[in-house]
């Protein structure tokens, strides 16, 4: 089976549910230049083949792409042909489908959100509007170069359609403008050029039809002509977001980065994920944790100091055939850890006001004398909590339930980064180990709390942003406030 799938206009969030489903099933994904890299995360286990095309540079010719689809499908594979926008809107999906039919192969078309509508929408320009535009046309700006002459009916579309949307027309912009004016479109008609529409790098140039060729703009971009362009100043919403135009580096572990990345993207930022840590099994391969779990009913309290600790602890609990009923009193260091406990049906008995070890110890001091306490935490952590609990008369067992290890550093263009976020001391320490202090001396940094901020200060770096609430939401709010939100 071959699925011809529209990836949408650029923003990965515009991918349809059906497209996401088939990407997860795919054995092979053959994708274009304009398919967002975020979308490829849905098909992590598939073989990925890039066949993108740029002006003057084609990875494969269309005939070769057609043959590639056939060759892969004949190996009894689920093949996804992932195309920017919609397969049937100047995506050559029809040609590929016909070739598959000629070779007796099954296919299915999954439409995508076309850039012809999505890109103007993200620029605050509706393609139709009551009293202004009751029709729109989507026109190729790049006709088949082998045709002897244009088949666009310029004499009809120039004045008969209210809103004209040209895709792939930047290279031919002077000729397009000339044809429209020659065939009756007023030179002063409002026009817009929109580059990298729906993405954080979006640029919008508002002009007039006759002046449009004067704008210095590179593809990919669309060209829109019509009175609806005048609505942009009132309807623009995407490029007015507080973090629009900012490129933010997220150093959190890959498996956990999505919440922070998503929140920053929702505020308009371009997010680059560069995990400096990953979560791994402790050095003793859970020996201490398993021993504690086997004697779980002997503990009066279980304390969790991170959401990671909760998740890994309950994984081990399940392996031992136990569940939440085996726990007695439970304490969580903060709201994120308490929220993770709720996912397992546990309401924490104690959550301190300030989400640090000192506050947690203080919140427990009246409850732990002569009590046996299990501390499920990272292998390497500050000793302030267990030491304080011992001073309060508790018997403390430390069970490493995970450890953080350094990720292989990625190649980063730090010149394009506006802000680097750190969600723990280990992310900061491993970042410096991988890239040195130099990037932090010229790029602003944001810390999730005072402990992480102090780690940065130990490297001679004062973070520009320190969250007041030591959670992901608190960090996002602090970043938002820093940029004037």
Layout of SSEs?
Elements: E1 2-6, H1 17-25, E2 28-31, E3 47-50, E4 53-54, E5 57-58, H2 62-73, E6 79-83, H3 93-102, E7 107-110, H4 115-122, E8 136-140, H5 154-160, E9 163-167, H6 173-182, E10 190-195, E11 203-208, E12 221-225, H7 232-235, E13 247-250, H8 257-266, E14 270-273, E15 277-280, H9 287-294, E16 301-304, H10 307-319, E17 329-332, H11 335-342, H12 357-364, E18 372-378, H13 384-391, E19 395-406, E20 419-422, H14 425-435, H15 438-442, E21 444-447, H16 450-458, E22 465-466, H17 472-482
Parallel strand pairs: 1-6, 1-7, 2-3, 2-6, 8-9, 13-14, 13-20, 16-17, 16-18, 18-19, 20-21, 21-22
Antiparallel strand pairs: 4-5, 9-12, 10-11, 10-12, 15-19
Helix pairs in contact: 2-3, 10-11, 12-13, 14-16
Summarize the structure.
Helices cover 31% and strands 21% of the residues. By secondary structure, the protein is α/β, with parallel strands linked by helices.
Structure overview:
The protein has 485 residues and is α/β, with parallel strands linked by helices. The protein contains 17 helices and 22 strands. The strands form 5 sheets. It has a 5-stranded parallel β-sheet, with helices on both faces. A 5-stranded mixed β-sheet has the order 8-9-12-10-11, with helices on one face. The protein has a 5-stranded parallel β-sheet with strand order 14-13-20-21-22, with helices on both faces. A hairpin with a 7-residue loop joins strand 10 and strand 11. The longest helix is centred in the middle third of the chain and has 13 residues. 41% of the residues are buried.
């Amino acid at each position: 089976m071959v699925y011809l799938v529209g990836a949408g206009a650029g923003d990965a969030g515009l991918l349809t549910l059906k497209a996401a489903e088939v990407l997860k099933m795919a054995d092979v994904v053959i994708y274009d230049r304009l398919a967002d890299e975020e979308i490829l995360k849905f098909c992590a286990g598939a073989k990925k083949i890039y066949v993108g095309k740029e002006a003057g540079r084609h990875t494969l010719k269309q005939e070769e792409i057609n043959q590639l689809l056939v060759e892969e499908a004949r190996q009894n594979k689920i093949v996804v042909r992932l195309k920017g926008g919609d397969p049937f809107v100047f995506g050559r999906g029809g040609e590929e489908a016909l070739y598959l039919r000629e070779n007796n192969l099954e296919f299915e078309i999954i439409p995508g959100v076309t850039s012809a509508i999505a890109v103007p929408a993200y620029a605050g320009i509706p393609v139709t509007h009551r009293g202004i535009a009751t029709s729109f046309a989507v026109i190729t700006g790049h006709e088949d170069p082998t045709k002897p002459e244009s088949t666009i009916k310029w004499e009809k579309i120039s004045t008969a359609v209210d809103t004209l949307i040209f895709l792939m027309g930047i290279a031919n912009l002077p000729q397009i403008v000339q044809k429209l004016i020659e065939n009756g479109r007023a030179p002063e008609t409002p026009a817009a050029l929109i580059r990298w529409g729906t993405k954080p790098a979006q640029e919008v140039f508002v002009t007039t039809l006759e002046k449009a060729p004067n704008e210095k703009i590179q593809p990919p971009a669309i060209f829109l002509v019509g009175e609806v362009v005048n609505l942009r100043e009132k309807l623009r919403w995407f490029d007015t977001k507080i973090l629009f135009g900012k490129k933010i580096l997220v150093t959190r572990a890959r498996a956990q980065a999505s919440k922070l990345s998503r929140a920053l993207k929702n505020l308009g930022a371009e997010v680059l994920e560069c995990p400096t840590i990953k979560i791994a099994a402790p050095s003793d391969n859970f020996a201490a944790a398993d021993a504690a779990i086997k004697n779980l009913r002997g503990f009066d309290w279980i304390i969790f100091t991170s959401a990671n600790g909760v998740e890994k602890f309950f994984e081990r609990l399940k392996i031992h055939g136990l569940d939440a009923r085996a726990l007695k009193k439970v304490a969580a260091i903060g709201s994120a850890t308490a929220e993770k406990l709720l996912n397992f049906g546990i309401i924490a008995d104690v959550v301190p006001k300030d989400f640090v070890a000192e506050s947690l110890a203080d919140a427990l001091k009246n409850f732990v004398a002569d009590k046996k306490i299990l501390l499920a935490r990272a292998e390497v952590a500050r000793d302030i909590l267990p030491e304080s609990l011992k001073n309060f008369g508790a018997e403390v067992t430390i069970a490493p339930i995970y450890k953080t290890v350094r990720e292989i550093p990625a190649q980063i263009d730090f010149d394009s980064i506006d802000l680097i976020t750190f969600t723990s001391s280990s992310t900061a320490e491993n970042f410096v180990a991988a890239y040195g202090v130099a990037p932090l001396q010229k790029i602003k940094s944001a810390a999730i709390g005072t402990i992480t901020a102090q780690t940065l200060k130990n490297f001679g770096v004062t973070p520009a942003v320190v969250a007041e609430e030591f959670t992901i939401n608190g960090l996002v709010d602090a970043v938002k406030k820093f940029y004037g939100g």
